[in-house]
Amino acid sequence: MRDFRDAKAMAQTLTEALAAKSVSLSHSESLELIARILGFRGWNVLAAKVQASQHATAPTASPVAIPPGLTELPIFPMRDLVLFPQTVAPIFVARDKTRRAVERAIAGGSRVLVVAQKHADDDRPNALQSLHPVGVTASVINSQTQMDGVLKVTVSGLQRTAITRLIDGEFLAAEIKPIEEQRGQSEEARSLSRMVLDAYRIYANIDLSSLPVSQRVRFGLPSPENPTLLADTVAQRLPIGIDEKQQLLETSDVVARLEKVLELIRTARPEQ
Questions:
Q1: Domain 72-178 in CATH 2.30.130.40
Q2: Residue 166: which H helix or E strand, with range?
Q3: What span, in angstroms and rounded, lies between the C-alpha atoms of 97 and 102?
Q4: Model confidence over 79-131: pLDDT tens digits?
């Protein structure tokens, strides 16, 4: 299971992900941020902990390989989260079945399917009609058990994915089909991206030039030259309901998605 000893790799992943969003962050700054995410005061404290643990024996999970060519992944059903591609989010796991899905994911390559439930009060979302048809394949980048026994899992979204069949066993899994984006690099998409970026900065009252680097990471937005990433980043941040976010997730046409995001920003923005 991944833990704080993966901190350097996590920092490198963070640096690369932010660079893709046109946000500049040095490796040392990424290390400091990762240290704080993992609950340490700074990188020096975490580095000492890593060094002290080098000879510790870590528990290992029995690997269960996914047969070649089978697009099957463990499912994390979410009550109140719609994850988007290329975004990072913490997930808090209390249900035993989802805990087993976490263990299976880590044993089998750290890939999972994160999908929203149709009803937040459903404690056993183990049927197709209980889940939305589209989720996101994601990578588990960290997991740790908290003091209250709840498992905190940090995941990074990868790609829109449709569920083709559910497999209900010790953990919930699904056979999946990746969804391809459409019109993501069209001139129309880039033009809409610029409009979305301008509208969101006004809506959120963001002036990056006045913020320190550590806070720019939080508020930084991708370049309009990457319409797909910009649409998903803004969609993740908008204060809208689960159903509206799910509609955006299910919209694979990037131009249509940007149009919806722009309309949501304009609707949410207070009257001037």
A1: yes
A2: strand 151-168
A3: 9
A4: 999 999 999 999 999 899 999 999 988 888 889 999 999 999 898 898 889 99
